[in-house]
Amino acid sequence: MLPALLATFLFCLSAVTATRATKLIGSISANFWRLILATLLLACWAHGVKSGLKGHGFPMLFWSGVIGFGLGDLALYMALPRLGSRLTLLIVHCVAAPFAAAVEWIWLKTLLSPAQIACIGLILIGVAMALMPSRRDASWQVQGGIAGIIYGIFGALGQGMGAVMSRVAYDMNDRHGFEIDGLSAAYQRILGGLLVATLAMMISVWKKRSLRAPKHTSEDSEAAPSARGVSAWPFVIGTALAGPALGVGCYQWALKMTPSGVVLPIVATTPLMVMPLSAWMEGDRPPARSIYGGVLAVIGVILLGRLATS
Length: 310
Hints:
Blueprint: H1 2-25, H2 27-48, H3 58-108, H4 114-131, H5 145-175, H6 182-211, H7 232-257, H8 260-267, H9 270-282, H10 289-309
Helix pairs in contact: 1-2, 1-3, 1-7, 1-8, 1-9, 2-3, 2-6, 2-7, 3-4, 3-5, 3-6, 3-8, 3-9, 4-8, 4-10, 6-7
């Protein structure tokens, strides 16, 4: 429970700083630079203190990174400037949790108890109630809203599949008697994500040069943070530390000990933590029912934690 809660808090910080970063330098650029920074930090830990790229689960963690860190997060970063952090996280987390639980049940035969399923359902209902916009919510009226929803769904599928593949990698390591910590697992995963982000960056640069566009839009700029002003760097550094570095390290730590169908609903409460920061930094104020939905989600997390420790 503790690793999942820590990951939730860190993902909250990452989402808000990521939204600001994407608006300043573009989705592809923000995702690329935050992965570069996080990879350097995780590499220092993995190669300097731990086991680096060792372990029978490395190939699975790498491909987990390609799908989750790479394709999934790229889709998430394309959704953020279109929907904002609150609605993007609603779609991603509420779709990823049941999807991951179903895939892990098929792949690893991991069964959840009826009580756990009930708690998971309570969490997801609470999150949806708290964050679902009303008809008058301006967030649904932003340009490219439909595209943002599609990107969010793809991000959710990538996150869910990546989580299950991480569970499979831990199982492979356990069967060979190899122990790997969360930060090292995050490093092995991020290499796959960095590969996808680098390819996306190269395609973006090539596209811009081939079109000879004199200006860059905030949605697909390939500029470095310094190219759009030093104000972008704090947000890029913040999302790199809170997301792919420390956040995913805690996330991998949680997945090592707990089924993905339990971890992801806890992480799904991230949008509830995002709400006050989103209201402050983005002017996105949720409706009054958010309080009731938040209470339901928190009750679900507490009950799920009690079941996990009983």
